[in-house]
Design a protein that fits this description.
alpha+beta; 13 strands; rod-shaped
């Protein structure tokens, strides 16, 4: 009986074993429960509020005359932020408008000259047609004179035959002397008529030759007017281009004048104010930023081992360190097509041979279900703890 352990020690061992077993079982159950919970409730503390940050800069060089807002002030889209000195741009606009007016006047002069050239060209063409018509008339008259000459030549030949016949008959005393005299007279008349017809033909040819020279002159005049017209039209086209270029300069001067008023591109809050009254700023120099929360969202960086459980449309419950106790419902909008490291300025290079695997993080975009309700709590860059409910949509 002395080698048998007392009953109290046995009971203590059993009790200790039971307690240890309960602890182990409880731990295993807790671990299983946590694993099940973690698969349906994906949480990360690597998440921040993102929004549109508009960097406001001057679009023209100038001196600040007015700063209409202050740091952290709420502004509406189109509100005046900064006003630059407009006087240099106003003078540039006046000069451009004056130059445009001068170019338009020159264009009007060239257009009037072109219209006058067109009239002169039309007159030269009409004169050429008149000369050509006159030449055709004279050619017809010359043909008529030639026909008349041929007729008179035929008449002269007939008069000679008649005279010879009359002389033969008179010598045979068949006809009286008077008929021989009439035949002689008829021959002389035909000779005179032929000479007159030849003279008229010669005159008609001279007139025709003179008018043929007029045709050449009229054609040369018309060609000269046509060349002058084409030159004037080309000059008018060039002048129109000058007017268009000057019009563009006027529009640019007007734009530069408008750019002296720097306006808010969207609703938001003014931050990082650097504009000071009287400062001279260069084009593109940042003056302030406007934070727009109208399209704010949360960018959560989840481990790549959990991304396979995330789908667009899943419900999300978010909390913020800045507002303990507040919960903000949302949904998964999209999962980025790459890890955050892949899109850094200097992505990691693992070709050295000393590679250490690091769990990468994939950005997930989460939107708010009620952005208007959440907006008073939002600040760009504050930390968010989102929990994605993978089994709920």
């Amino acid at each position: 009986m002395t080698g048998t352990p007392p009953v109290s020690k046995v009971r203590k061992k059993r009790k200790a074993f039971t307690i240890a077993s309960v602890i182990v079982v409880t731990g295993v159950l807790a671990l299983l429960a946590y694993q099940a919970y973690s698969r349906t409730h994906l949480m990360t503390d690597d998440a921040f509020v993102e929004g549109s940050v508009h960097v406001i800069g001057a679009r023209v060089h100038g001196t600040i005359l007015e700063v209409a807002v202050s740091d952290n002030e709420r502004v509406s889209e189109g509100a005046l932020l900064v006003r630059l000195d407009p006087e240099p741009f106003l003078q540039a606009l006046k000069e451009a408008e004056a130059a445009l007016s001068a170019e338009k006047n020159r264009a009007a002069e060239v257009e009037a000259m072109a219209a006058a050239r067109e009239k002169r060209f039309a007159a030269a063409a009409a004169f050429l047609l008149q000369v050509q018509d006159r030449v055709e008339e004279l050619a017809a008259a010359l043909a008529a004179r030639a026909a008349e000459v041929r007729a008179r030549e035929a008449g002269l030949a007939q008069a000679r035959l008649d005279l010879e016949r009359a002389r033969t008959l008179w010598e045979k005393e068949v006809i009286p002397r008077s008929r021989l005299d009439r035949a002689q007279t008829a021959l002389e008349l035909e000779i005179a008529s032929l000479e007159a017809a030849v003279a008229r033909q010669r005159q008609a040819r001279s007139v025709l030759d003179a008018h043929k020279g007029s045709i050449a002159q009229a054609e040369a005049g018309m060609r000269a007017e046509e060349a002058a017209l084409e030159e004037t039209k080309a000059s008018f086209g060039t002048q129109k281009e000058q007017v268009a270029r000057q019009q563009a300069r006027v529009e640019m001067a007007r734009l530069n004048l408008d750019y002296t008023r720097v306006m808010a591109p969207a609703d938001g809050f003014v931050t990082r104010m650097s504009a000071e009254l009287g400062n001279t700023v260069a084009a593109g120099q940042p003056l302030m930023s406007v934070v727009n929360l109208q399209d704010a969202f949360v960018l959560a960086n989840y481990k790549e081992t959990r991304v396979g459980l995330i789908r667009p449309g899943q419900k999300v419950v978010m909390t913020m360190d800045a507002w303990p106790g507040e919960k903000f419902p949302g949904r998964v909008e999209s999962v980025m097509a790459g890890t955050g490291a892949a899109f850094t300025l200097f992505p990691p290079e693992n070709a050295s041979g000393n590679y250490v695997k690091v769990v990468q993080r994939v950005p997930v975009k989460i939107t708010f279900d009620d952005l208007e309700e959440a907006m008073p709590f939002l600040k760009v860059g504050i930390s968010v703890v989102p929990t994605i409910l993978t089994r709920e949509r």
